[in-house]
TrEMBL record:
Stored InterPro entries: Vps35, Vps35_C
One Gene Ontology cellular component: retromer, cargo-selective complex
Domain of life: Eukaryota
Family that this chain belongs to: Belongs to the VPS35 family.
Gene3D superfamilies associated with the record: Vacuolar protein sorting-associated protein 35, helical subcomplex Vps35-C
Transmembrane intervals: none
Record key words, sorted: Cytoplasm, Golgi apparatus, Membrane, Protein transport, Transport
The name this protein goes by in its record: Vacuolar protein sorting-associated protein 35
Record flagged with keyword Cytoplasm: yes
BP GO terms, sorted: intracellular protein transport; retrograde transport, endosome to Golgi
Function of the protein: Plays a role in vesicular protein sorting.
Mode of membrane association: Peripheral membrane protein
Amino acid sequence: MEVGGVESTAEDQEKWLADAIALVQHNAFYMHRALDGNNLRDALKYSAQMLSELRTSKLSPQKYYELYMRLFGELQRLEIFFQDETKRGRTPADLYELVQHAGNILPRLYLLCTVGSVYIMSNEAPAKDVLKDLVEMIRGVQHPIRGLFLRNYLTQISRDKLPDAGSPFEGEGGSVMDAVEFVLQNFTEMNKLWVRMQHQGPAREKEKREKERSELRDLVGKNLHVLSQLEGVDLEMYKDVVLPRVLEQIVNCKDEIAQFYLMDCVIQVFPDDFHLQTLEILLSACPQLQPSVDVKTVMSQLMERLSKYAAASPEVLPDFHQVEAFSKFSQAVIQVVEAQPDMPLVSAISLYVALLTFVLNVHSDQLEYVDQVLGLCVKRLEGKGRVKDAKATKQLVLLLSGPLEKYKDVVVLLKLSNYAHVMKHLDDDNNRSMAVVLIQSVLSNYILITEPDEVDALLNLLRELVQDSGGAPSNAPPKYNWQQAEDEDFKEEQNLMARLVHMFRNDELEVMFKILEIARKHLCQGGPRRMQYTLPPLVFSTLKYVHALHEKELEEGLNDRSGSPSMRKAFQFLNTIVEALAMIPAAELALRLYLQCAEAAGTCGLEPVAYEFFTQAFLLYEEEISDSKAQVTALHLIIGTLQRTRVFGVENRDTLTHKATGYSAKLLKKPDQCRAVVSCSHLFWVEGERGIRDGERVLLCLKRALRIANAVQQMSSATRGTSGPMTLFVEILNTYLYYFDRMLPQITSTVIQGLVELIVTETQTEGSVHEALVDTYLANTLRYIQFQTQKGDFTADRYSTIQLP
């Protein structure tokens, strides 16, 4: 605080306060002695000298408040003395006249207020007249700090003496209107003094003055609290008198600090039902506040309070509809934003968030209200593109998250036409994060997307995850390496997208196929990096549709071997999807999916379709898969799928089987060749309906496998000097036993006997390599043969001819 043009220090303030308190204590001592001796004249003399310390201009508001509180206690004791004086025969009117002879105005007015309190309690004069007289005389003190504390003292001593409804001072002492008028007048004058503090002193101390004013704000706010506690202030009086007068003062003071604080006070101290019924009046003040006032916080607090009111008392919800609360709030938000063209974007969006929160809490059944709020935000963001401000972005995310948290159903969000428009204004990273939240909501709440237009809207909403905007375009060259930019976040996002595809369901097959077509339209625009994640689940969803369609056609008696138009269309659909994957290239993935489609076509009895899918799989194997390990895996998948597919006629099956066995013999590593040839033997012995039983070719495959295994042993002996483990021979022996159990005529006990003797002899040869796993494998195999001989049935007879070493 500046005194005499020089800024005081904290030490100065402490010293001045200590000096003032010392003088107060000195005069209070003599005042107490006069009070004890019933010496009125000396009591008034020393009390006036004590109160003169409040005339100081040196103390800061905080230190002045400490001094005031010291004196307040002494004034309470003095008031008790005045009451005792009236009991001893002195009239309150005499006291009222007597204290006006004090020399200085400030002590005189404090004494007047103290005697006035006694005067009102005596009922010798109407309370309204005494209060009116006091509030008028106090105008004589215009120094901001002194005047504020003096009027605060008047508020404190009069709050229980107002002519309120049910009060002992009502009637001749006045009416509720007199009480309201007194408090409003005192409030108005206090606010003027409080605002005047802002304009005293040099501009460089503006921040310091604002801090000092904030320390004194409760002095002004107490008047509004007193008004809210008056029993006689009903809704009508509040609406017609109290609120208009208070708002008039708030708007006219044109001070940022006062307007914000007092609006907050009004919202906090008066009842919720009053706010609801006077919403239009209260909100009309918001656009008239200074542009620098934090209107969004004011309105947010009002909406939050009414939201809690509705939540705590559901029976009042009809009142919200009756007064058209949403419409009034919405209009007020529009007016505030228009009245402040320079309002920061984050403040405007915060207003929309508050309005949306109000709607979700009070009018959650009115989706059109939710959409209107989003529409207001879209209008405000028009022409601004992606929002780059971090705080504004955070508010946008809150705006988008609100409906999701409330309804927990993305399908509901899809009905909001403005939701997607708001989401477009998020930057790439936040848009993706919001999209992830939407998908997680679908998955965690198990929300099925059942309509084509819903699927279309949702995938448009998730555009940042669906389309590969950051990588290569969807028409990237065939050799584009989609693996080069993989990261964990990207994988997580795309795995969520893959899971989302499985939530697209409809029991009506025609509708389901439309859903699949829409999904393909979006997902095939995803680019190479994304398609490897999103297209496989689409393939499996389509295969599920195919199986359902097949069952339906069987029930209806349709058995067209060329396939119904719907079935053919479905497989053509599948082919385009897998072909898109093959073009990335993602050859291994595409091959697996071709085989899945081939097996499904076989189940549906569509031989030409199944043959075509196998053909595509073989072409991928030949042209795109060059890694030896990948070739082994792919070939075993082809053999396994071909073995399970029983739709082929002799010619087509022979062609495919020949291809598979041919590729088996061309693998790079001999052990891989051996195992693949063994697997091919299963292509010639398939049990069940339409099975194949060609024992000769089974035996041919096994013999070829033995020759390859023998070649492996010879190569090992030539290069390492040892024959190597007998792993391949033991595996072939187990395959022989498999067919022996199935009683292939070509697989005899003699053949098995010879193979067992060969393996045992080789393992016992000096210098042979032993591996624990292989030895255990062989021991278990021999134990199996031994077990079979002990069964005591036909099986035992067949196995008994095999002599174990």
